[in-house]
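Table 4 source record.
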Amino acid sequence: MLWYKHGRTTQSDQHLFNLWSFSKVQTVVFLLGLTLTFLIMASYVLTWDKKGLLLTPSPYRLKVADVPSNTTAAVAVSSAVGLSLKRTSIDMKRLTRLIRSKLEYPPRRVPNEKDVIGTDSHLFSTIPRHFLPGIKSPCWYEDVPAEKSRDPYDGNLFAVRSKNFKMVCDRLASAFRRSNNGGGLSRLRCLPYFYIIGQPKCGTTDLFHRLLLHPDVKFNIMKEPHWWTRKRFGYIRFKDGFQESFPVEDYLDLFDLAAYNIQGSSAGNSPRDRHRLAQLITGEASASTMWDNQAWSYLHGDREEAEPPFLAQDFIHTVQPHAKIIIMLRNPTERLYSDYLYFKTANKSAEDFHQKVVESVQLFQSCLSESSLRSCVYSTGLSNSMPRADSGSAAGGLRGKPSRDLRESVQLSECPLSQQAETALTKRPLSNTRRAADRSLGPMLPSTQNLLWEFHQAFNTKLASVLDNQDFLWSNT
């Protein structure tokens, strides 16, 4: 089961993040998950570039007469205040009614735990069902095969692709050899204590870098491993096709630096030092963990189901029922424009953005008129048919969150932060703010803003209702 805890927020906050633990209220989590999955899918697909590769055929196509053929034509029909919605061929009232009717979907059937385990027996045999007591992080001791005694990180696929992580692995291998000189070949292994997830351009990068300054957090050096949603299936970028599956052992290696520090709690330190080391935690910040379930259609494209039988959260819940999840959210209308400006590389303009929004809304309406909301949300074919800029891992900066919010939302330490640590976390410059060249393009057109506001309104209302928090209506942003 799952439970949800919402941190303190203020009306001026542009970004919100929330602490989750897999233990209670699974129905609420599903409703939130599906709503958020739709928002990110819609947000992603609303900005696909027309030249994007169509990996999966899709039955959803625009009529030639629906939209001007190029940005020049779109500009030609624009007025001084922006493009007129009358030229978009979108009946927003009808679409809004359609969305609201589709939002009354039945709860998703949560898969049986045995069925989840049966999909990846190696994963669930590598990670134990119970973790060590007295250590805050989910950790356990693992025997190291004799052939790995010299270098347990030999061949790690993350290290092959990251020179920085390769350097960390070399240092850890050296420390491992020294610590096991004449002793048993075992090492402490840990899963992330928490996961930072969310939509792009919502502040995941900023929060990640702030938490690097927390004295009790020992991050790996790789912000977004994207293991749960992509690399464990053999996909780094879906457009590049299947490459090589990253085994769970390689993923666990990412957290060995934290495990090495935690393992010091069993060494000859004072009781106070051992207790402090046992409270050290680690985490990762793959935003895709919240919304990306595309792998199922690439692996099982011949199946008749319109939605994946297993989601990323099913696997994390089964492996780690009490995992803490920090979700970063933002007004979806503003988030989408920020995403467009950040990921699109050429010919950016408010008019071009409007054109892509119109095309995508029409494609989604076409799907929704024939299929269920859930089918459209999970449709990889629909997603790949919509215009979007190149995807990426960066996210926008948080406004300066009060230090109290950081402590209460993440609940990292038993002891209060020192004044110095608190200042470091809250005063750190924002990460991934809007580039000067993008700021010069100005805001989106008023007509685009109105269209997106109407489009998202039903989803925002549903989300605010599920979470019992009117801040998610985004009426003050």
